[in-house]
Amino acid sequence: MARTDIRRLGTILLVGVVAGAAARQYIEYRARSEAGRPSRLIDWMQARAAALRVSQYEQAPVTDRAFRQEQYMRLVKQSEPLIADYLGVRLPEPISRVYVHDRREWLEANFTSFEQLFQPIEEMYERNGARNAATVLLGELNGKFLGAQMGLLLGFLARRVLGQYDLSLLSPDPAATGALYFVEPNIARVQGQLGLNDEDFRLWIALHEATHAFEFEAYPWVRQHFRGLLQQYFDQLNDQLENLGSSLPQMLARIIQSWGSGQHWIELMLTPDQRRIFDQLQALMSLVEGYGNHVMNAVGKRLLPSFDQIEHRVAQRQSTKTLIEQIFNRITGMDLKLAQYQQGEAFVNAVTEARGVAFAARVWERVEHLPSMEEIKSPETWIARMDRM
User: Fold this and answer.
1) Percent of the chain with pLDDT over 90
2) Residue 166: which H helix or E strand, with range?
3) Most buried one in 108, 189, 357, 375, CB count within 10 A?
4) What is the CA radius of gyration of the chain?
5) Would you put residue 242 in left (φ > 0), alpha (ψ -120 to 50) or beta?
6) Could you tell me if 79 and 207 are in contact, meaning their C-beta atoms sit under 8 angstroms apart?
7) What 3-state DSSP class applies to 99?
């Protein structure tokens, strides 16, 4: 169940690498014939059109918007002190940016974020388009391909996402607060399908999303660190795409050498430097999502009369994915991320059980305390490292 922009970011990060694997001869041909034409990395009109078609937003309007807006504001306000008491930390400012979205509104909010996220790369291609053969291909062919791929991904997620914490990643203001989005048509559909209590189910979701606000706003360095990792990743991606012709043989060699190793196909595409940054991003995203689940469960068990029913029915729903969903998750790498988010929750649960809530919260004290993916898989190694610090 996709709940946050962290999850969708993890898949979008890999789109450029996948699209970059093309034949050099075709690149050179396009360069000779269209070298003077301006290029764009992503055709955003194509992305929007594809996403809206896939999302089927017309079939899922928000009903009784005013009532739902008041309800979510109230549930978020109810969640804040409960999370603060559990974590032992307060937000600098109360959560005030709470929005009820339909699928189209959720898509527009995310397209705005991603256009900003990709802007530095777009500018690089516009500057170098007349000189770089790979840029011509990306601007003409891969621009439409990437747009369609991104639209397909976000359109698919728009039909499933329930809530999202948008962390204002690109805001120049370090004190900027994020926003909580609740995609009410999807929430109402799942609630009805599973026969869950209206208020309890929405509070269950609000607890998870509000926890993300604590992770990024009570500890502002986390957002800056995340932003820095993304910038490093895109810098590496820029270098790879600028030297597509020379890097393609190395990419194929890595895939051949690692085939059968049990790694996800997406991981095989990465250079060693990309893999190092990617692993840090995955560890951080796993921790963020896993911590959200941990807090939602710890607080929800004490608060919600129907908590066990919600957990049981949601788990049943997640275990019965259609074949199309399974194929989509495999192609986009969502299966890789879902598995790692489960590991993140298991890590927080294990540390909390072994040493308590306050000790687990040390992950948010400074960047050196963040666990690696290896430590997330082996919580005792992180505990031992913290004991030495």
Assistant:
1) 46
2) strand 163-166
3) 375
4) 21
5) alpha
6) yes
7) strand
